[in-house]
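assembly run, all chains below
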Amino acid sequence: VKKPPAQRTGAQRLESLLAAKEIVIACGSGGVGKTTTAAAAAAMAATRQGGRVLVLTVDPAKRLATALGLDGFGNEASRVPDEAFRNAGVQPRGELWAAMLDTRQSWDDLVRRHAPDARTAEQILANKLYANISGRFVQSHEYIAMERLYELHRSGRYDLIVVDTPPTRNALDFLEAPSRMADFFSSRFLKLLSAPSRNRLVSAATRPFYLVADRILGSQFLSDIAEFFALFERMGPGFVERARAVERVLHDRRTSFLVITTLEAAPAHEAEFFVTSLNRMGYHLGAVVLNRALPSWLLAEAPARLAARLRDEVDPAVAALAPGLGSEPAQVQRVLCEVADAFLNYQVVAQREAEQKAELAAGPEILVTVPAFDEDIHDLAGLLRLGEALLADG
Amino acid sequence: VAATTTALLERRLLFVSGKGGTGKSTVAAALALLAAEVGKRVLVCEVDAKGNLADFYETAPLRFAEREVQPGLWAMAMDTEASLKQYLSLQMKIPLVARIGPIARMFEFIAVAGPGVKEIVTIGKFCWEVRERHYDLVVVDASATGHIVGQLASPQAVNELVQVGLVRNQTQWMLDVLGDPARTGLVIVATPEEMPVAETIELAQRVRTETNVDLAAVVVNRVLPELFGRGEEEVFDRLANDPAALSEALGGDAGPLLDAAELAVRLRRTRAAHLEHLRNSISPAIPLLYVPYVFLKDHGLRATRMVAEALGQELGL
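ok done. output:
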C-alpha cells in the first residue's frame, strides 16, 4: 500500500530529526555520497544546533579529513578546529568532532576488553590466524563499525553521532552483523572446531564433519584454527552479551537511519530495498536523501518542444542569428544543434530521475532532494553548502 | 595500443570490478555481449548476491546453472554453496557430500571461520571453467573495489595458511591460471568523477602489489561528449549573452535551452579534469577505453548493445 508523499517540507523535518536523535546512520549503496552527506549533516548540526557532534566514518579517504581542516584522523576522535569554521565564514554554536574507524585497532581493543586475562589477549593478538581472520570473518568490518558506534554512544561524550556505513556486498549486512556475531559464538561448530583433537573422533555425530573438514582443509590447518578458536571462545559470553547490546541500540528510538541514494536506477532500486527492509526489521527510518539530482526545470515541456523543433528545422534560426553573431552559418548551425541536443539529452536523464523519485516518494515520511553540485567538495565551506542544501530541500 | 587492446578479448578470464555506481555490471554485460558477437563462446557470471546482471540482457533472474541468454552467450549467478558442492564432487571426488544434511550450515560456518573459503570457491569455479576450456571467454561481474583484491588474492592467502590437504593441492593451478596474463586479466570500471577515479588509481596499485593478476584495461564509463569544438564556444557565449535574440529566432523562451547547454558544459569540464588525472596516474601501458554517456530512458538490452558497440570501437573491432 503506497502512502501519499509527505506534505511538510523534508527540510524542517530533517533538521528536527538531527536535533532529536542521538545516532543517525547514513546508509545506501556505494558511490552515492554517504560519507560526504553524513559529514555535511554533522557539520550543520554542530553549526546550528550546538552541542558536541561526532561524525564517524568508515571511509579511509583522506579527502574528508582535508575538508574538515584536519591532517587526518583515526580511531580517537579529533575536534575540527574553530579556524576551519571561521575560514568558512561560520560561527558554530557547538563542536564538531571526527573519527575514522580503524578496523584492526578496534578489533585489538575488543579482544583486550573481552579476554578473561591479559595472557589470553596477547595469545590471541599474536596468533597468526588472527590478522587474517579479524579482517574477514563474520563481516568483521561491519560488526566492528556498529560496535565502535555503540562504544562511542555509551561514552556519553556526544549529543549526536552521525555515522556512514561500510560498502557491503549485501546492503544490510552491517545490521545483521551483531546478531551473526552472537550466533557465531553460540554455534556448536565453534565448539567442534575448538575441541581438543584427542576428543574429536569420539562422537559418531561429529565424525563426518571432521572427515570432510580434514580432507578439504588438511588437519594442520584445522588444528591451527582449533587453537585460535579455543582462545577466542574464552571471550564468548562477553561477546554475545555485547553483540546483543549493540543490536538494542540500533533498534532504539534515539537511533535513526538516513537512506541516501542518487536517482540512478541501481542505487535507487537498492534504496527502495533498504526502506522496506528497515521498516520490516523494526529500525527507525528517518529520511531518504536523493543526492545529486538534476534541476527540475529540465522537465518542462515548452523548452523541450522548442529544442525538438530546433533540432528538426535549424536553418531558419541559423539564418536569423548568423549575421548578428558574426559567425559562419555552418558554425552557428552546429552550436544550435548542440544546444538543442543538450536540453533533450538531459531531459531524458531528468525524466529518468523523476520516475525514480516518484517511486521512492511512496515510502518514507521525509524525502529530501539535494541538487548536483558543479564542483567537488574540498573544504568545510563546501560541506556546509551541501549541508544548507540538505536542510533546504534543494 | 591496438595490439594490446585487441588482446583483451583474446584472454580467457576477465574480472570486471569498479567502485559501486560506476556501471561495472553494464560494462561486464557489454564486454561479454561484444565477445559473443565476434563469434566467441562466452560465459558471463555475476558474483554479487543482489546483482541485476539479468536486467542488462532483459532476461529472467540468473541461477547457478548457466543459461544461454544471447546467441553464444551463457549467463549465471554465483552461489557459493552450489559452487562448493560442484567443486567437491568434480574436483575432490567427494560425491556423497551433497547429500550430507547439514552441509549447508557446516559450509556457512567453515566459510566464516576459515579465511578465504568463500572467495576461493568463487574464484575456483571460474578458474575451473577456464582450465576445462568450456568457453572461449569467462567474464566475471566481480565484487566492487572494496572486496576484489581479497577475492583475487585468496588462493595465495590460502596457500600460505594451508600447508597440506586437498585445498592446498587446488590452489596452485588456480594461481597458475590467475597469474597468466595471456589468460587472465582485471578490468577496472571508472567514471570521470572524483571518488571513482581515486579508487581506480588505488585499486590499480593494490592489484599490482597484492595479487598476481594482470590489469588488462581501465574502462572509463559515462564520458560526456564535448559539446563545442574549436571556435564554437565563443559562438555559444555570444548566443548566451543575448537570450532574447535566440528566443525571438525560435519563437519561445530559449532560456532553459541555454541553461541546459551551460549545465552540460560545466559537467563535462569537471569530468575532463578527473579524466586527465586518471590518465596521468595509470601506467601508459594500460589501455584506457572510453564509453560515452548513454542518454537513454532505460538501461536494458539496447543500452548494453550501445556500450558493447562503443567498446568494440575502442578495441578496434
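The first strand of chain A starts at residue 23 and ends at 27.

Residues 52 and 158 of chain A are 5 Å apart (CA to CA).

not gonna interpret more than that til we talk
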